[in-house]
Specification:
heterotrimer, A alpha+beta (353), B mainly alpha (313), C alpha/beta (246), A: 353 residues, alpha+beta, Rossmann fold, OB fold (Dihydrolipoamide Acetyltransferase, E2P), 2 domains, five-stranded antiparallel beta sheet, 21 strands, C: 246 residues, D-Maltodextrin-Binding Protein, domain 2, 9 strands, 23% strand
Chain lengths: 353, 313, 246
């Protein structure tokens, strides 16, 4: 299985210009903030929005090529789509929803229903639900039906738009595990749109980060988590991210300030600098000892993150530290208090921009 | 599984994200999507909505105004019922012309609904879905029969489809179809007046429905016709039903265009309204009786359809 | 916008009139077949009585009578037959016959089908329309055809005699039976073929003052004018017959 897609189009204020390369039966997660163009990209791959430029080739079959004037209509593409709010046909029973795609592909009513029932069993939907209308289903059940409906036509490319977005938090973890299991057994390429980092990290073989209609980063989830290349990803992961110029082990940050790494930076020039918040220490007086990076600032904000407290320090550069509630109490940290932030050089990660 | 070999360098560098120190949410904490799921055409959410009791209190003054409206609309009908010669009702109903006119009325009005559905639904679809130059003009022209005095409509029909009409001349000479003074002509006249009601209602339904269901059907391999038949039509069924009911009611009560274009001949073109009008010339009792029959039938049909096409919450 | 307001205000003006001392608005209910003749007569009457404004309401005789029974504000009533007038005898002064009318065959201009007699109306190749038997013209037409022993199969029984003329003038019908006055009014668009005197029916037009009239003097003056020789002359110009035995 392979997918090669270059999608260029303009929709409203969004200018989408993205390339996707997938080899093998991978789960690719499209991650990005709202209005980044994730859903638009998905719809373009499904043929629901025409490309302005570019091409989509699935397994060597050209689905769309603007230059050659090729455009296979949506209903003839070997795709399956799970829409964000599932879009189960409200006038059809659950069984007939799943049988719909089989019927359009020529199956008889009876055969289609039998096959649909097998798919419903495969997604662990209680057989009693088959004759219900979709509005009688819970969110989790509806999601399973939508998945079964998309899988039943045996697509080679499965597109899922925010598959768990409509779930409440309690049901989400369980459904996510279940979804991961179904996607793992899916024979084909699977593209999942999400803006939920947990979903992204747990489902993805490959992550593609889309911002403002463009791919800003792609790679394995671990790689992205440790080496973000955009504010959006860094925010998601919860890391301090800076950009600057490296000279030896010293990095002059673009927006002021200086960070020293433990070793000589292998690349001279433009780099990203990442500092985990847990690696940041805060002090009321200039720290003793030899941390290589110490600078002063004032506490701008405090917020609770689980067992820890995140302290936003306004300084040059600004930084977020994650400390224990005990430390906050001991240091009398409140907004406006002057503090010194220190980071060991060994905790600083530097990589080329 | 490996990631593809695309370069890690983004096309569009994150310059704007050069200096990042703000870390907002907790690490790897899922957040609720700010994009709410779109509502369906039916207005029913995919997930059952939490049972919020909505208090329904009418704005001040609405109740008395609504009561006046109901009284205004029903009082004339009540007067008609009060005036009815109940004693002679069975005799009046079994008069030979009555059943003929009634049967003809049903045939013509249902025929008009049929024609309106056949031609009006595709028209409504085009008006709702296609952007084309002059669409607003087309819509206005299509709706004109609603404001045209029906008698003028009848004359216009004569000028178009009459024996010497623009198209009628051709129909008469080449195809041998003469529409005036025929039942077909009566159906045509009623269709002319009633079809706009269907078109406008169905168009509104098509505009109001969530078109993403059609997208969903396409991704499931449904071509345009299958999508329309199996998804669009069922989803706009309430509008279609309401439109057909309005169309039928208008056709059933049609008088001016019918008598002008199709004339008035018992058994061929004399529908109930025509019979009522002529009865009014010398026997008010008969006219009232015939009107009651029409009212009763309309009431039965409209109430019967209500449960099916105007879902009550 | 201003025009719209002006238009809205316009029809209100006559209704609100009467404020001027001595001015009278006279409302005359008249049968539809009198439209042309009465409009002309109204102008002549107003010329002679500048203080009286005549407002006409033309409709089918039955409708006029029905409206009068519901206390419509009419001063004078003129119908197309005595039978209809008699139904409101209790609401009017005794009626007087002021004109007569008779029927003719209306045919397409130039009479392309060569229709010369009532017998021709039975021809299979002709499309014939009549007025419905519920209205006077239709009733008279049926009487004439019955007397002549001619069986006609009309394609439509029009709700008014004007409908008959319209269908013939538009070419939808080849022939119909209408009042001579209607044929005269539409000459050019249609032609008339006379129905012999002995077979014809004479319709009589009565006129009366409405008892409840608040302008009884003006109403009486109008009726007298219609009955005067000047009034008869105008009526004759429009094809009406003089009253009295024919």
């Amino acid at each position: 299985m392979s997918l090669h897609a270059r999608v260029e189009l303009v929709k409203g204020t969004l200018a989408l210009d993205a390339t996707l390369e997938v080899a093998g039966d991978q789960v690719v997660v499209l991650l990005g903030p709202n209005a980044a163009g994730k859903t638009t990209l998905l719809r373009a791959l499904a043929g629901l929005i025409p490309l302005a430029r570019g091409r989509v080739v699935l397994d060597g079959t050209t689905l769309e090529d603007v230059d050659q004037g090729v455009r296979v209509p949506t209903d003839q593409r070997p795709i399956g789509v799970v829409f964000q709010d599932y879009l189960l046909f409200p006038h059809l029973s659950v069984l007939d929803n799943v049988a719909f795609g089989l019927r359009t592909r020529g199956a008889g009513r009876r055969a289609a229903r039998e096959e649909a029932a097998r798919w419903l069993a495969r997604v662990d939907l209680a057989p009693g639900c088959a004759h219900e209308r979709p509005k009688a289903l819970s969110g989790g059940q509806a999601q399973r039906v939508a998945l079964a409906r998309a899988l039943a036509t045996r697509p080679r490319l499965l597109l899922l738009d925010e598959p768990l977005a409509a779930m409440d938090a309690g049901a989400r973890a369980e459904l996510r595990r279940e979804l991961a299991r179904h996607l793992a057994s899916f024979e084909g390429i699977c593209l999942v749109v999400t803006h939920d980092p947990v979903e992204a990290m747990t489902l993805a073989d490959q992550l593609v980060v889309l911002e403002g209609g463009r791919v800003v980063q792609r790679g394995a989830p671990g790689e992205l988590a440790s080496r973000p290349r955009s504010r959006y990803v860094a925010d998601l992961i919860g890391l301090n991210l800076y950009r600057g110029r490296a000279t030896g082990a010293r990095i002059d940050l673009r927006d002021g300030g200086r960070i020293v790494a433990a070793d000589r930076v292998p690349v001279e020039g433009d780099v990203y600098v990442v500092i985990p918040p847990r690696a940041v220490s805060l002090h009321r007086t200039h720290p003793e000892g030899s941390p290589r990076n110490v600078w002063s600032g004032t506490v701008a904000a405090l917020d609770v993150a689980g067992e820890r407290i995140r302290v936003h320090v306004a300084g040059v550069p600004p930084i977020v530290a994650e400390v224990t509630p005990a430390a906050v109490a001991a240091l009398h940290l409140v907004e406006g208090v002057p503090v010194h932030a220190s980071v060991k050089a060994t905790e600083v990660d530097v990589y080329p921009a | 599984m490996t990631s593809s070999g695309t370069p890690l360098t983004p096309k569009h560098g994150p310059e704007s994200a050069a200096n990042l120190a703000v870390v907002t949410g907790g690490t790897l904490t899922a957040e609720r999507p700010p994009e709410p799921p779109l509502s369906e055409a039916t207005g029913r959410p995919v997930q059952p909505a939490p049972p919020v009791r909505r208090t329904r209190r009418a704005p001040a003054g609405f109740l008395p105004l609504a009561v006046v409206a109901v009284a205004f609309l029903t009082l004339p009908l009540v007067a008609l019922v009060a005036r009815a010669p109940w004693g002679s009702l069975p005799a009046a109903l079994s008069a030979p012309g009555v059943l003929t006119a009634l049967r003809l009325s049903l045939i013509c009005s249902l025929g008009a609904v049929g024609l309106s559905l056949l031609f009006g639904v595709p028209l409504a679809w085009l008006l709702a879905r296609l952007r084309f130059r002059g669409r607003d003009v087309v819509r206005a022209v299509v709706l004109l029969p609603m404001v045209l005095p029906p008698v003028v409509g009848g004359v216009a029909l004569l000028l178009a489809f009459g024996r010497n009409g623009l198209a009628g001349r051709w129909l008469d000479g080449l195809v041998g179809i003469t529409l005036p003074f025929s039942t077909a002509g009566a159906i045509l006249a009623e269709t002319f007046v009633a079809m706009p009601f269907l078109v406008i209602t169905v168009e509104a339904g098509l505009r109001g429905m969530d078109r993403r269901y059609e997208d969903a059907a396409a991704t499931l391999g449904a071509g345009r016709w299958t999508t329309f038949r199996r998804v669009t039509l069922p989803l706009i069924a309430p509008s279609l039903g309401a439109g057909a009911a309005l169309c039928w009611a208008r056709a059933l009560g049609e008088f001016g265009a019918t008598i002008t274009f199709a004339g008035n001949l018992p058994g061929a073109t004399q529908t109930m309204p025509l019979a009522v009008y002529l009865a009014l010339q010398n026997n008010v009792d008969t006219a009232v009786t015939l009107s009651l029959v029409m009212l009763a039938i309309s009431l039965v049909v409209l109430v019967g359809l209500r449960g099916r096409w105007f879902p009550s919450r | 916008m201003l025009l719209a307001i002006a238009l809205l205000a316009l029809p209100l003006a006559p209704g609100c009139g009467g404020g001027e001392a001595g001015r009278v608005d006279l409302t005359v209910f008249a049968a539809a077949s009198l439209t042309d003749a009465f409009t002309a007569l109204g102008e002549e009457f107003t010329a002679a009585h500048p203080d009286i404004t005549v407002v006409f309401s033309f409709a089918g005789s039955q409708q006029l009578v029905a409206q009068l029974q519901q206390a419509a504000p009419a001063d004078v009533l003129a119908t197309a037959d005595t039978k209809t007038m008699d139904t409101v005898a209790d609401l009017t002064t005794p009626s007087e016959i002021f004109a007569g009318n008779k029927l003719a065959i209306a045919v397409a201009a130039g009479n392309p089908d060569g229709i010369t007699s009532l017998d021709d109306l039975a021809r299979e190749d002709l499309t014939v329309v009549l007025a419905a038997p519920e209205v006077p013209a239709g009733k008279y037409a049926q009487e004439i055809l019955d007397d002549a022993g001619v069986t006609v199969r009309p394609v439509s029984l029009e709700e008014s005699v004007k409908g008959v003329v319209t269908k013939v003038s538009l070419g939808e019908a080849d022939a119909g039976i209408a009042y001579v006055t209607d044929v005269a009014a539409a000459l050019g668009e249609i032609d008339g073929v006379e129905i012999p005197e002995e077979m014809n029916v004479v319709a009589t037009y009565p006129i009366a003052v409405v008892t409840a009239s608040e302008n009884a003097d003006a109403a009486r003056a109008f009726v007298d004018f219609i009955l005067s020789s000047q009034g008869r002359q105008v009526l004759q110009d429009y094809g009406f017959l003089p009253p009295g035995p024919s």
